Amino acid sequence: GQQVMQIPQYQHVQEGEDFTTYCNSSTTLSNIQWYKQRPGGHPVFLIQLVKSGEVKKQKRLTFQFGEAKKNSSLHITATQTTDVGTYFCVHRPLTYTGTASKLTFGTGTRLQVTL
Amino acid sequence: NAGVMQNPRHLVRRRGQEARLRCSPMKGHSHVYWYRQLPEEGLKFMVYLQKENIIDESGMPKERFSAEFPKEGPSILRIQQVVRGDSAAYFCASSPVQGDQPQHFGDGTRLSIL
Q: How do residues B37-85 score in pLDDT, each as one tens digit?
């Protein structure tokens, strides 16, 4: 089945440093979503990217979808302790009717931020 | 404005017992998904249901696992004759029928097998 790999698996930064996680697929993706899961919590939807080369920003977070639609990245500027958690890139395959379908989660990047 | 409700939050079972996990979707959502998460891993899709229908069960183990979403009441994920390897967090998500809407997750059920 389709696999979505993320690197790094784990990143430990000092508060105020930047952080980037990368997501790669061997096949073209129709879309990419990003979720954040706090320790002991549940995944929370952050954003969806659909277009080739698309870039979206949410305050200190910048999301990018590659031109070939096979990779994506999430960059956090000036990390804060509230950014701690695991970040997953996720693919939601399209159905031919455009209706809902399952999610394929990437392997995740666990971010630890210390003061 | 209740989100996806899962219960119980924690469930302890002995090997060979049955585990029943419940999920009530968000109001207005007609699609329910179950995912399993092992420690330090991502979520793996198990099954996708609409009311009274299983749409996709490609991620469900062939034996001991079953799921339903009856016309009335919550969706149930049932694990019979549990084994140690079933220990995991089980998350339920729901979404509306429109494919471009994100899935909303419940807090999960942490299942521990003694």
A: 998 888 999 999 998 899 999 999 999 999 999 999 999 999 999 999 9
- Residues from chain A that touch B43, judged by Cβ atoms under 8 A, are 43, 88, 103, 105
Q: Is B91 on the interface with A (CB under 8 A)?
A: yes
Burial of B114 (0-12, 13-18, 19+ CB in 10 A): exposed
Return the SS3 of A20.
strand
Q: In what order do the strands lie in the sheet with B75-79?
A: B5-7, B19-24, B75-79, B65-68
Chains A–B, number of C-beta pairs less than 8 Å apart: 63
**What one-character DSSP code corresponds to residue B30?**
-
Question: Is the backbone of residue A48 left (phi > 0), alpha (psi -120 to 50) or beta?
Answer: beta
Residue type for position A68: A
> CA distances (Å), B104 to each of A8, A35, B53, in order?
26, 10, 20
Residues of A in contact with B28 (CB under 8 A): none
